[in-house]
Design goal:
The protein has about 210 residues and is an all-alpha fold. It has 10 helices and no strands. The longest helix is centred in the middle third of the chain and has 24 residues, at about 65-85.
């Protein structure tokens, strides 16, 4: 699927995200995506940075973005393997889980749509955040969780996954959970200030003055 897309160029909505967001440059890093006429609401600075850097690095060609998608997708598979191994899975089972992640249609479609780059990057960052949480590196987990939100806002409920994993393993880390919640609240405040009176990432909030 991925190789033929190298010959297709841009698909619908791809040019919007690459050319409109990327061409806006660093001055548009914190702009609300709806500003570009896109059906996406909210500020996604890390996603915007990927498009800006891509446009400055390889221009308007789509091949560079598709290569970046492949790298991000592979990083997600490696994160799944590490996470499964940390949870006690046999190496063979962990590799099989990573393979399923890479080949599942819902994930592999990100190799087709350049506009899926924020989803893929956000998911990978969330997976690595879980990996760091399981490894006991809570600071790195919080930082990666924050980065994932700056790519894809629907990862706001990530702390529930971390808490559920801890509950299954009989662990309680209130300090870490509180830190993750504060990160989510910080993201909410940021989005509310950037998009007053709008629905932020699908979550409604009160209108500004």
């Amino acid at each position: 699927i991925w190789i033929p897309t190298l010959q297709v160029g841009y698909l619908i909505t791809d040019d919007y995200l690459n050319l409109r967001v990327g061409a806006a440059g660093w001055s548009g890093l914190w702009a609300d995506y709806i500003h570009y006429g896109l059906p996406y609401v909210g500020v996604r600075p890390l996603s915007s940075a990927l498009y800006i850097v891509g446009l400055k690095t390889w221009g308007t060609g789509s091949a560079g973005f598709r290569a970046l998608l492949l790298i991000v997708h592979a990083a997600g598979g490696w994160a799944v393997f590490r996470l499964a191994a940390q949870l006690g899975a046999h190496r063979t089972a962990a590799w099989m889980g990573a393979g399923l992640f890479l080949l599942t249609a819902a994930n592999s479609q990100t190799l087709i749509w350049i506009s899926c780059l924020p989803y893929a990057a956000g998911l990978v960052l969330a997976l690595w955040a879980l990996d760091q949480h399981e490894a006991g590196r809570r600071g790195w987990a919080a930082a990666l969780y924050a980065a994932s939100l700056l790519c894809f806002p629907y990862l706001l409920l990530w702390p529930l996954l971390a808490a559920a994993g801890d509950a299954v393993r009989g662990r309680r880390d209130w300090k870490a959970w509180a830190g993750y919640v504060l990160v989510g609240l910080g993201w909410w405040v940021l989005q509310s200030l950037a998009s007053p009176g709008r629905s932020v990432g699908g979550f409604p909030h009160a209108a500004g003055p």
